[in-house]
Amino acid sequence: MPSLGRLHLITDSRPGRDPLAVVRAALSAARAELVVQVRVEDDATDRETYDLASRVVALCAPYRARCLVNDRLHVALAVDAAGGHVGADDLPVDAARRVLGPAALLGATARDPGTAAVAVAAGASYLGVGPCNATTTKDGLPAPIGVTGVRAVAEAVDVPVVAIGGVTAAQVPALRAAGAYGVAVVGALSAAADPARATAELLKALTC
């Protein structure tokens, strides 16, 4: 199984954002410790997703960083990404594992120990757990689970737990203490005035 970095950057393709510029800046600071998860808006075409994902894979390659594709696993295969990530409304984890094959990284979303254990048994390599806090980067999310919810999942599974949802560098120590292997962020980097510096601060908090 490929190695998993502790800092996951989820691309922000909302109007007015430049996901590739943020990816470049984050890679310059985090290098192989960065995982870039390509996530697009629901109305994006497969071609648009492919174009973005292929460019992200190319950016990641010199740094040996991993690129994953959210939901659209056929695109992950087409661009030779390291794997993919599926949420509650995407393919079931066992089906996603069959699509990607045994060697790929496969993330799954979970928010409680029960669904987490099912996802791991079905083949998840790691779990994205949250939302930890309220966030505006994605619509229709359930209520935040906080540090307590992250701890409950981390204690129930033996794969890396990546906390997501409004995470800031200041919150990283508490999440790590709760058992989180790493964190996934969107706005903390895409809305930062200096994404490279924000990446360095997150990484420093994760590795202290």
Automatic annotation (TrEMBL):
GO terms for molecular function: magnesium ion binding; thiamine-phosphate diphosphorylase activity. 4-amino-2-methyl-5-(diphosphooxymethyl)pyrimidine binds at residues 37-41, 70, 109, 138. Mg(2+) binds at residues 71, 90. InterPro entries: Aldolase_TIM, ThiamineP_synth_sf, ThiamineP_synth_TenI, TMP_synthase. GO terms for biological process: thiamine biosynthetic process; thiamine diphosphate biosynthetic process. Keywords: Magnesium, Metal-binding, Thiamine biosynthesis, Transferase. It catalyses: 4-methyl-5-(2-phosphooxyethyl)-thiazole + 4-amino-2-methyl-5-(diphosphooxymethyl)pyrimidine + H(+) = thiamine phosphate + diphosphate; 2-(2-carboxy-4-methylthiazol-5-yl)ethyl phosphate + 4-amino-2-methyl-5-(diphosphooxymethyl)pyrimidine + 2 H(+) = thiamine phosphate + CO2 + diphosphate; 2-[(2R,5Z)-2-carboxy-4-methylthiazol-5(2H)-ylidene]ethyl phosphate + 4-amino-2-methyl-5-(diphosphooxymethyl)pyrimidine + 2 H(+) = thiamine phosphate + CO2 + diphosphate. Gene3D superfamilies: Aldolase class I (3.20.20.70). Pfam families: TMP-TENI. The keyword Cell membrane does not apply. Its cofactor is Mg(2+). SUPFAM superfamilies: Thiamin phosphate synthase. 2-[(2R,5Z)-2-carboxy-4-methylthiazol-5(2H)-ylidene]ethyl phosphate binds at residues 135-137, 166. It comes from the Bacteria. Its EC number is 2.5.1.3. The keyword Metal-binding applies. Residues 7-189 form the Thiamine phosphate synthase/TenI domain. GO terms for cellular component: cytoplasm. Binds 1 Mg(2+) ion per subunit. Pathway: Cofactor biosynthesis; thiamine diphosphate biosynthesis; thiamine phosphate from 4-amino-2-methyl-5-diphosphomethylpyrimidine and 4-methyl-5-(2-phosphoethyl)-thiazole: step 1/1. Condenses 4-methyl-5-(beta-hydroxyethyl)thiazole monophosphate (THZ-P) and 2-methyl-4-amino-5-hydroxymethyl pyrimidine pyrophosphate (HMP-PP) to form thiamine monophosphate (TMP). PANTHER family: THIAMINE-PHOSPHATE PYROPHOSPHORYLASE, THIAMINE-PHOSPHATE SYNTHASE. HAMAP family: TMP_synthase. Belongs to the thiamine-phosphate synthase family. This is Thiamine-phosphate synthase. It comes from Micromonospora krabiensis.
